[in-house]
Predict the 3D structure of the following.
Amino acid sequence: MEHMNYAASAFSVPLLLLLAALAALLLPLFIRALRGTQGLMALGAALAALTFFRLAPQVEISLFNGAIALNPASAYLWLFTLGVLAAVLALSVYRPPAGEENAGEYYFLLLLSALGLMALIAAGDLFTAFIALELLSLPLYALAGIRRSKPGLEAAYKYFMLGALGSAFTVLGIAVLNALYPALTFDALGQGTPGPLALAGFLLVISGFAFKTALVPFHMWVPDAYEGAPTQISAFMGAAVKAGGVVLLWRLFSLFDGGPVREIFWWLAAITAVGANLAALAQTGLKRLLAYSSVAHAGYLAVAFFGGRQGFEAVLFYLPVYAMATIGAFAVALVLEKDERGPQIEDLAGLARTRPWLAAAMAAFMFSLAGVPPLAGFFAKFYAFAGAVTAGYTGLVVIAVIMSAVSIYYYLRVTVAMYMKPPAADTHAEPAGLAGAVIALMAAGVILAGIFSRPLLAAAVGAARWF
Amino acid sequence: MTELLTNPLSLSIILPAAAGLALLAVPRDNEPLLKGAALAATLATLLVTLKLYAGFDPALAAMQFRLDLAWIPAYGISYALGIDGISLLLIALTALLMPVSVLASFSYIKEAQRGYYVCLLLLEAAMIGVFAALDLFVFYLFWEGMLIPMYFLIGVWGGPRRIYAALKFFIYTMAGSVLMLAAILWVVAAQHAATGVWTFSIPALYGAALTPEAQFWLFAAFALAFAVKVPLFPFHTWLPDAHVEAPTAGSVLLAGVLLKMGVYGYIRLAVPMFPRGAAEFAPWLAALGVTGVIYGSLVAWTQRDMKKMVAYSSVAHLGVVMLGVMAFEPAAVAGAVLQMVNHGLSTGALFLLVGVLYERRHTRMIEDYGGLAKVMPGFAAVFMIVTLSSIGLPGLNGFVGEALILFGSFLAYPWLASLAVSGVVLSAVYMLGMYQAVMFGPLRHTENKILKDLSPREWLYLLPLLFFIVLIGVWPNPFLRRAQAAVDSYIQLAQPYPAPPDTLPAVVVRK
């Protein structure tokens, strides 16, 4: 009975988001007074969901013949998704990315995408995961180009073409696996050693999700998409979509004890850490820099996989810490942006003089992403690498730590511009407003979540047991 | 949790950190309050370390003032602190140099003062933390955390090439340290595999059962991180840039404290944890140290910028210290510990004196001066004492340390020790040459004729350093006695094939 209660309460959250999505889309069509309030509706729904969301009892509740599995792990990640969503919505209210006439569509699509992510997290079988992935991705293609400007359309186009290719791989792989494992549930997929055909199927599925997670060499869409999409959507892609991909990849990764799949993951992790960090060195645009940084972090997360259970605990700790820094950095970019491509790094020159608190927060995000103690990013990296070393993958960790030393350079360039260069003549002095609240919250998070990492780590450890 | 504040060791870390954060609440333009609060906080920290010094029992070999609070139990990480005589001396040095640095910054720093004093105080917390940490994770946290305030000190308040210097400093140190992080994880995982316990406790990891091959690589990873910091030749290239570009207080703390962290790392971590690896590397590290002595001295000789000369002389001095540390002889190690303090005092004072000149004339070039003894007699006298201390004149502190190192290391590395003596001779050549060019001769530049002698504030921060320079020179015993037990246990832990565990010294046993 208690379980049914929990299931009901858990389902009221997606239902609430769905209702809010429909309300944002439809109500203003009929009630003129509600035009312009779509953002507040969506934000209100997300905040209400965050407030009333209950953490799951320590059981797994399987629904719809195992298509959806509610357990503490999915609850943890749902909470994470809601948090990211609320932050992105707040940024959208702060500065609407779409015109008045598109506001309804914008929030509708964003909420649907978040619903897709929640379904992906709770998916109990591979086919549900695929449908959820599409529900997550399709709205994002439209959102990336919602401004219908040239960079926006380029972003949407690239994202869509490569995303569709990834989806094609995934669905082909699922078709192959379906022939061998009719149930397609993750439990069934883990049975026995896969033959060559099954292996091919797994690899196709993995490459499809590697597109979403943006592992090198499946990352080509990322810089353009992050740069051209509205900054709020870039933040959502960087923080939330990646999390969905990572969770799915972990579920596939953990089906194998060794063999070619692990070997391929080893190479994916290593190439991602090396390639993304080297490419990031050459970036001049802040959003492109953050795009490559997000690819690099996907690499570190893949390294963490090798730590097994302990590694996945670290992944669950890593995701919110990384998301806070990324959302915060994109929020700063949003506050400073003058055109669609967002600020160049040089545009941040002298920010420490003109807006000291904004600069301090941005510095905290950069140092956290770089993994410098005492910021939370260091703790996250430390946990991520600890598991992999314990499991004997020291070589991979050595590659990752060397590349994270390389990454220092491009993160420091941002602080150099802010603190060590004189202010540019036309400093953009947009008040930070609601974005300021988001930035302050994220900055507090990256500063405190490391030193006081016990509660978050305990939650991650508790959740990790269920995947 | 109240131990965080009642334990004086922990308090000496938390006090400056909390004061630094509290300064953020002070309005940016309230100069007197910012300066006064920064000075008060560093003086209060100095008082706390005096309490440590007074309460320290030199007879005990074990760690003292221990604190062990579970922090991240899932990984066996605890906020563990404790000091032996070596850390005690270095913490005392840090706490002494801090109010001096703050006082020296009062007129030097004119822009963004709030951020400056915040960085100084956070830096102090991290520096003391490095010397007090008894948990590898905590050590690494302070070790790397120290980079952020120092990076800003150099990059924001530094000279014309400050951005280059700050980036180079940060990236060199970070690049050196990341492999140490991998090595730390490896050691802890290996210890876990052997004992089933997760622990980052440094004493508990002494004598961990590791194969000679593992020790070789682990020592190499740690040694690289520390070699960059010391800095050992050829990892020293960040140092002249950082020292020259940093503001005076930054140079004082870089030379006075940060370089010691590297040497301290060898003493506290690399050697005792991997004695067999250390045995393989020690002659090479000693040789690199001596190379640094000769190279640093020769390069210093050719410098025309006083700050650069002092910076290269640091490479030479630290080279001698490394020779002592790697000799594993009681006299040499004790000398190295004392020489670390000496170098902090005398090189710190030299940077302060160069800063005094720079504030008046805005140049550090030797040829821009000459005959200063006529207009600044007090300054000339102080400069003389400090110069003599730096070149190791008997009766002043530098002599005691260098002599002990050379005597001690002669037993282990006769050839290297003999070569190192040449560095001592060379240092006399270039330092006295610089002194002569700056102080004596005619007053060639008219701008120099109106230079003012030391102000009361400048006397105030130079006198404590002079006091210790003379005190250690004539009466080094109280300082050596405090380090004695720690030095002995270092040498014992450094034995590659130690005696059976039950005869190991008390530090090995976790309480």
Remarks:
- The beta strands of chain A are 61-63, 68-70.
